[in-house]
Amino acid sequence: MNTGSDEMAEGVVVVKEEREERPLGSRAPDFVKARRYLHLSWQVGVFVVGLVVVVGGIIMLPLPGPGWLVIFGGMAIWATEFVWAQLVLRWTKRKVTAAAQRALDPKVRRRNMILTTIGLLIIAVLAGVYLWRFGLELPWNIKE
Question: Which DSSP symbol is given to 52?
Answer without folding.
Answer: H
